[in-house]
Amino acid sequence: MKEQSKNPIPVLKSELTHHWQERLKGSNLVEMVMKYKDADYFNRSDPDMDPETVIYEHIVKESDPKEGRLDWGHITLYPGQVKDQYFCTKGHFRSNPEAEEYLLCMQGEGLIMYLSKEGECWCEELEEGSLHKVPAGVARRLINIGDEPLMLSQCTPSNAGFDFDSIDDHPFPCHVYDDDGELAILVDVDEQRPSGPMLEEEDILNFLGGNSGENINN
């Protein structure tokens, strides 16, 4: 039987990143705070809301933007509403279209709203402990539908980047509201306009005239 070494390998204490449900800490941190006065993406407005009201905070522990490196982030989306529209993030695509993202819900309840380049929109429920994969090439927006801060940790490739311009050009067409205590998701028709040419009145009349008779009766 071998004797135990008097000098065992060292067990080091790692640099503190954050504990469960706590704020991200450490070095190489980049922070962003979104206040109501800068949140131009809501469909509602509230002149009585304090412009300094914080909607959400995003803090990222950055690595070098190289292939194979990862960034670890923390998002806190506060509870609240602009009139009846729930607080949400602006949402974004990734500059790197191949980049995926993982989101771990640490606290609260809410929704992830997805938007494809083709304009398809859908949601997933967020609850404490749920882990979500954001596919490559898809935008995502976070929505807090609860009464406490919605807190998430995220992991992304360090070269993922942010593409907000595409959201400015083609906003999320779906919006989440509080309808007398019930969750309501409404579609903005103006943001779902077809990309093809619009039919003129003469075209519609010609179409109806040419199809009067058997097609109308069937």
SSE blueprint:
Layout: E1 29-35, E2 54-61, E3 70-77, E4 81-82, E5 85-86, E6 101-107, E7 110-115, E8 121-126, E9 131-134, E10 139-144, E11 150-157, H1 165-169, E12 174-179, E13 182-187, H2 201-210, H3 214-217
Antiparallel strand pairs: 1-2, 2-3, 3-11, 4-5, 6-9, 6-11, 7-8, 7-10, 12-13
Protein architecture, described:
- The protein contains 3 helices and 13 strands.
- It is mostly beta strands and 218 residues long.
- It has one domain (29-213): Jelly Rolls, CATH 2.60.120.10.
- The strands form 4 sheets. The protein has a 6-stranded antiparallel sheet, with no helix packed on it. A 3-stranded antiparallel sheet has the order 8-7-10, with no helix packed on it. Strands 4-5 form a two-stranded antiparallel ribbon.
- It is globular and about 75 Å long.
Quick structural gist:
The protein is mostly beta strands and 218 residues long.
Number of DSSP-assigned strands:
13
Number of discrete domains: 1
- Average pLDDT, all residues: 85
**CATH class category name:** Mainly Beta
Shape: globular
CATH topology: Jelly Rolls
Please tell me how large the radius of gyration is.
24 Å
In the CATH hierarchy, the architecture is Sandwich
Distance between the termini: 91 Å
Number of alpha- plus pi-helical segments: 3
In what range is the share of β-strand residues? 25-35%
CATH superfamily: Jelly Rolls
| SSE topology string | EEEEEEEEEEEHEEHH
Percentage of residues in helical conformation: under 10%
Judged by helices, strands and strand pairing, the structural class is: mainly beta
Biggest sheet record: 6 strands, antiparallel
Strand order in the largest sheet: 1-2-3-11-6-9
Uncertain stretches of 5 or more adjacent residues: 191-201, 210-218
